[in-house]
Structure formats: C-alpha cells, structure tokens
Design brief:
Elements (H helix, E strand, L loop, with lengths): L2 H9 L3 H23 L2 H18 L8 H28 L13 H18 L4 H12 L4 H8 L3 H18 L6
Protein name: RNA polymerase subunit sigma
Keywords: Sigma factor, Transcription, Transcription regulation
Pfam families: Sigma70_r2, Sigma70_r4_2
Length: 179
Amino acid sequence: MQEDALIKKVQQGNQQALRILIERYKHHVFKVIYHVVRNPKDAEDLAQETFIKMVDALPSYQNQGFTTWLSRIAVHKAIDFNRKKQRQKEDLTFFDQDYQLTDGHNPEEQYLAKHEREMVRAAIMEMPDKLRLVVQLYHLEGLSYKEISDQLNMKESTIKMRLYRARNWMKENWKKEDF
C-alpha cells in the first residue's frame, strides 16, 4: 500500500492502516532517536511517544516527505528528553551548603535549624543598637569579653553589663513561640 493512501486512512481513523504505518517506520524512528539518546530503553519509550505525537500531528501533515517529517518529530522528542534529563541532573546536583548531610542530621532538621538561625538574626536586628552590637560579637561571632572590649574600646565590665541587659531585653521582648 502506498504511503499517501496509508496516511489518508490513518487520518480517517483506520487502526489497521496505523499499525502498518508504525510497523513500517518503527526501526527507522528507533535508530533516529537512539543516535541522540544513546540508550535503547529510552529510545524505545521515545519511539512510542513519537508515534503518539505523529497521530496527533497527522492532520497538519502536508505530503512533504513523510519520512523526513516523522524523523523531525523523533529528533525533537529525543532532544527534549535529553534537555529534561540534563535539567533533572542539575536539580539533583544543586544543593545549598546548609543542606548537605555532613553532620548526620537529615535535611529537614538542617532546614529547620537554618530557619531558626535566620529568625534569631532577624530578631537581633530589632534590638537597641548598643545591645545588638555586643550580642552579635559575643553570640554570633564568638568573641570573648576581652576581644569585644578591645574592638569597641570599652571596659570588659561594660561589655558584661550590656550582655546582661541584652538578655533581660530578650526575655521581655521575645516570645519562645516566635522561634
């Protein structure tokens, strides 16, 4: 049966003509796709998808070389597949350093800990300036009283007093459920 006659019958809904058309071109479509994806299993799956796409696109076919037209559909399917696969690889390999499993905690715990740290930092920013600076240096930077006093050119007793006032300010202004 001629190609054009088969295509017309498929367009009219003839299932037998569709089977013949698929049988005639399945090896060609597989080869085209395999050259792009280099995996036989993926090539088989994409060949099936290509024939489904062919049936959907057949009404727009305009007798311009069926093999070329079908090959173009197959190549586009294979290229789209490779792009999607590459995006998935990128998504899986992109991790924020805070979420990598380095200390035995699961990602959910790491996320919650990071979120809590961010909330504490935001709350510290609401503190009065005199108290905030000392809290940041002592609690966030890990500096000693001596190091803070040297850096701010203040007495150690002043640093201790500001940290004491900062703790009292936190007790008065922060609620535990906020964190």
